[in-house]
Amino acid sequence: MSRDRSAQTLTNQLSLIVNIIIAIKGIHPICRSAEHPQEHSSPMDPKIGGNGISRAAPLEALLFDIDGTMCVSDPFHHRAFSELLQNLGYNGGAPITPEFGMAHMAGRSNEQIGRFLFPDWPQARLDAFFAEKEALFARYAGEGLREVPGLAELCRWARERGLKRAAVTNAPRANAELMIGILGLADFFQLVVAGEDCGEGRSKPCPDPYLRALDLLGASAERSLVFEDSVVGVQAGVAAGMPVVAVASESREAKVVAAGASMVVRDYRDAELWAALEAAAGAPKIDSEPSAVDAKL
């Protein structure tokens, strides 16, 4: 019995030490490998998810992921990765499947993908691989990248209401700016936080990219809303203290809800999404002049 009490005491002491370290260093428990996503015990029903958005009223800012959230880009990433990996003899030379891409690449930074695919490669070889991959992606995306339906209308709505706007992505900056340019939104976003902006190991699912965007926008988490499509992205937005709308197919709905999404939609034409946004934003304020954030940047 005494031994059991001693063991329990030691366990409690270790737990206390860990919590103190977390508090001192500002480590967020969700910032860990996306291979083991944190699940929320009582996720909001996606069809009642507007209540999560209402927490942000009066709405101040919208923060968008890019790949899969603003545009249908996964097929182009998959094509580029599949071509390069097959040439390298990865997976025995068999093409990787879209399911493999969704499970191990979607929403992740090149750093994370590289560690998964080639854990023993030196950094220089990884850099060369991803440079080639991004060049292929740029070529393929230029041939047919398209927006998620309803995005243009949502962007007009956000501008009319004078909301602050940022794109927050794990993609490299050149990749992010390419996609935003193809979508015709280069003048819409007041800033872009890209995969390389938060330091090694601090991309999504860590909250750092979204916290950086909030800081640069001068916006509060309590009055901001995130749009995402991946589990790691939803985790990052939730960890940063914001409600998250997930743009996801039916097959992925349960996963993004478990990750903490307040609402799940197929695209931006969803009537319940619009009702929730209108309720949270209030009256239009035509954003015809550059905002203070625009001027600062």
TrEMBL record:
<dbReference type="GO" id="GO:0003824">
    <property type="term" value="F:catalytic activity"/>
</dbReference>
<dbReference type="InterPro" id="IPR023198">
    <property type="entry name" value="PGP-like_dom2"/>
</dbReference>
<keyword id="KW-0460">Magnesium</keyword>
<dbReference type="InterPro" id="IPR023214">
    <property type="entry name" value="HAD_sf"/>
</dbReference>
<dbReference type="InterPro" id="IPR036412">
    <property type="entry name" value="HAD-like_sf"/>
</dbReference>
<protein>
    <recommendedName>
        <fullName>Phosphorylated carbohydrates phosphatase</fullName>
    </recommendedName>
</protein>
<dbReference type="InterPro" id="IPR051600">
    <property type="entry name" value="Beta-PGM-like"/>
</dbReference>
<dbReference type="Pfam" id="PF00702">
    <property type="entry name" value="Hydrolase"/>
</dbReference>
<keyword id="KW-0479">Metal-binding</keyword>
<dbReference type="InterPro" id="IPR006439">
    <property type="entry name" value="HAD-SF_hydro_IA"/>
</dbReference>
<dbReference type="GO" id="GO:0046872">
    <property type="term" value="F:metal ion binding"/>
</dbReference>
